[in-house]
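Anyone able to model this chain together with adenosine-5'-triphosphate?
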Amino acid sequence: MARPPAGPPLLHQDRTSATRLIGRTLLIGGRLFGSRSCTSLSGPPGAAPVVHRMVEAMSQLREEKVQLQEELAALRERLALHDSDQQAASTQLQNQVENLKEKLISQAQEVSRLRSELGGTDLEKHRDLLMVENERLRQEMRRCEAELQELRGKPGAACTGCEHSQESAQLRDKLSQLQLEVAENKGMLSELNLEVQQKTDRLAEVELRLKDCLAEKAQEEERLSRRLRDSHETIASLRAQSPPIKYVIKTVEVESSKTKQALSESQARNQHLQEQVAMQRQVLKEMEQQLQSSHQLTAQLRAQIAMYEAELERAHGQMLEEMQSLEEDKNRAIEEAFARAQVEMKAVHENLAGVRTNLLTLQPALRTLTNDYNGLKRQVRGFPLLLQEALKSVKAEIGQAIEEVSSNNQELLRKYRRELQLRKKCHNELVRLKGNIRVIARVRPVTKEDGEGPEATNAVTFDPDDDSIIHLLHKGKPVSFELDKVFSPRASQQDVFQEVQALITSCIDGFNVCIFAYGQTGAGKTYTMEGTPENPGINQRALQLLFSEVQEKASDWAYTITVSAAEIYNEALRDLLGQEPQEKLEIRLCPDGSGQLYVPGLTEFQVFEFGHTNRTTEFTNLNEHSSRSHALLIVTVRGVDCSTGLRTTGKLNLVDLAGSERVGKSGAEGSRLREAQHINKSLSALGDVIAALRSRQGHVPFRNSKLTYLLQDSLSGDSKTLMVVQVSPVEKNTSETLYSLKFAERVRSVELGPGSRRAELGSWSSQEHLEWEPACQTPQPAARAHSAPGSGSTSRPGSIRRKLQPSA
Ligand SMILES: Nc1ncnc2c1ncn2[C@@H]1O[C@H](COP(=O)(O)OP(=O)(O)OP(=O)(O)O)[C@@H](O)[C@H]1O
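re: yes, here you go
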C-alpha cells in the first residue's frame, strides 16, 4: 500500500482527516454489527432457499470481509501516516523548544555581556572618577586659598599698595569662579549618580523579568516535553493495541488537538517573550546612548577643569612674579629712604648745632620774655576789673550817645515838622501863585441815618504821616487820593475854618474869594458851610472874622460889608433876602465895561445881619432835609484907606452846592425828578467848566448853567478858589465818594492864575457908587444899600436856605 505523501503537520488538516476516518470507522462498525444481528435473527428452516440465502450471505460476508480488510489496510496506512505526522510535529516542537532555549541562552549571555560592558561597574567607575576629580579640584582650591592667605599675611604685601590688592582681587575672582565651576561639576556629578542609579535599577528590573521569562519557558518546556512523552506513550500503546483501534485513534486524535493548542499557546508566549527581549534591547540601546553622552560630558568637564587649572597655574605664576617685583621695589624704596634719611639726619644735626648756638644767644631774650609774660599775667589777672570799668564807662558813653541821638532825633523831628509846615506853606504859596483851586476834603462821621450792618461800615482811612492823603476801600480795592488837606471825622468846625481863614481875610485886601462845598447828598456840605446854631460853619465864622478884622483896621480903613443870599433852584436864580423870593433874577455884565458880572435886583444887606432861612429843602430817600438848590452867600467887603483914599473891593462867595446824588438812587419822581435833573445838569456844567479850565481851552462854557455863570468870576483868574469836597465814610456810598474824590482831583489840577487884588484910587464903579457911601466921609453905623422888605437889623444868624413845604 502506498503511503500518502507526508504533508505539513498542520493540526487543522489532521483534525479533518481524523474526523473522516472516525466517521467511516463507525459506519463500517454499524454495518458489521448490524449484519451480524440480522444473520442470527433471520435463519429460515427451509434448506434450498436457506442455503441459497446463506451462500448469498456468505459471499456477501466475504465481499464485506475483503472490503473490511481493504479498509483496515487503508486505516493502518493512515495510522502510519498519522504516526509519522505526529512524529514530525513533535520533532518540530522539539526543534522550536531547542530554538527558544538557544535564544534564551543567547539573551542571557547578551544580558550578562551588557552588564559586564555597561552595567554598574562602568558607571560606578565613571562616578568614582568624577568624585576623584572633584576631590582633586577641592584640594586645588584649598591650596589656592592657603596661598592667598599666605600672600595676605606677608609683611611686604602691605606696602605694595593697590597693584597687589588688584592682583589679589583677580585671584579671588578666579578662585570664586573655580568654586562656582566645582559646584556646577558637583551638581552634574550628582545628576549622573542619580542617572546611574536609575539605570542600575532598570537593569535589575529587566534581569528579573528575564529570569521570570526563562523560568516560565523552562516550565512550559517541561510541560510540553512531558506531554510529548505522553503522546509517544499513547501512540506506542495504540500501536500495541490494534483491535480496539477505533477508540484509540479517537483518543489520539483528541490528544493531538490539545497538544496542538498548547503548542500554539507556547508559540504565542514565545512571540511575546521575543517582543519583550526586543524592547529590553531597545532600552539597553538608549541607556548606552545616555552613557555615551555622559562620557562626553565628563570629557568636557575634564577639559574645562584642566583649562581652569592651567589658568590658575598661570595666575599663580603671575602673582609670584608680581610679588617678586614688589619685594624688589620695596627693598629698593627702603634703601632709598634710608639714604635720604641719612642725608636729612645729617642736615638735622647741622641745624641742631645752629639751634644750640641760637639757644645760647636767645636765653637772655627768653629771660626778658618771661619777665614780660609775668607782667602780662598780672595784667590779665586784673583784666576783668579793668573790663568792668571799661564796660561801665562805655555803657555810660553809649547812654549819653543814645540820649544825644534821641535829642537829635527830636530836634530832627521838630525840624522835619517845621520843614513840612514850610513845605505846605510854600506849596500853598505856589498854589496861590499858580492860581490853583485848592481842594480840601472833609469826611463826616458815621451817623445813625447811615443805618447798621455791613453797608454802614467805614470804608475811608487816613495817612497818619500825611494829612493830605485819603484812602478809600472801594469794592475791596484800596484807592488813594492826594488833596491839599484832608479832615477826618474828628476835625472840628474850627479846624476846618482855620484852614480857610487866610483865604477869607484876603477879601479884605480886595481879592475875590470863592469857597464852595461839593459832595454827595448827606455828605455834610451844609454842616460845613452853615453848621448848627451851637457849632456854626464857615459862613458865620467868615463873617465874624471879617467883622473883627475890619474893626481892627478901623483906625485907618473904613470898611463896609454887605451880604446877599441867593439860590439856584431848577435853573432859576432867586433872591433869598428879597421881598419876592419867587422872582427869578438874571445875571448881567456890569455896564461899566469891567467885565464883571452882577445880579440886578439882588438884595444886599449892609451891616451885621444876613439871610433869613428861605432856602428850598425837600425830603428825599437819601436825606430828610436834603437841599435841592445851590445856595450862595455873597459877602462884599469894600474899604477905603482914609489917608490915601485907596479903595478896595473884595467879594467872598460861599457856595453850598446841591447834593450830587444820582437820579435813580434818590428814587425821585415828578417835581423831585425835575429838581434832580436840574441839579445834575448844573453840576455836570461845573464839571465841563473845570475840564475846560484844566485843559486851558480858549472857550470855557460858563454860560451853560446859572451856577457856572454866577461863579464865573470865582472860577476865572481874578479869584482865589477853594473847594471843600464832602465825603461820606460808609461802605454803601463808596461809588459816590469815589466819583467826588476823582472830581476833586481834577478840580485841584486846574490853574486859574494868581488872583488879582481889586484896589484903585478914585471913584467906585457907577453901580457901586450908587449902592454905597464911603464910611469915612459920613461915618455912620451899618446902612442898607438896597431897600428891601423885612430890612433892618436881622441879627439872628441862621441857615440861608429856606424850607418849602412838600406841596409848595
Ligand atoms: N462833621 C460833621 N460832624 C457831625 N455831623 C455831621 C458832620 N457833617 C455832617 N453831619 C451831619 O450829617 C447830616 C447830613 O449833613 P448835611 O445836611 O450837611 O449834608 P449835605 O451834604 O448838606 O446834604 P444835602 O446835599 O442833602 O444838603 C446832618 O445831620 C449833619 O448834622
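The radius of gyration is 79 Å.
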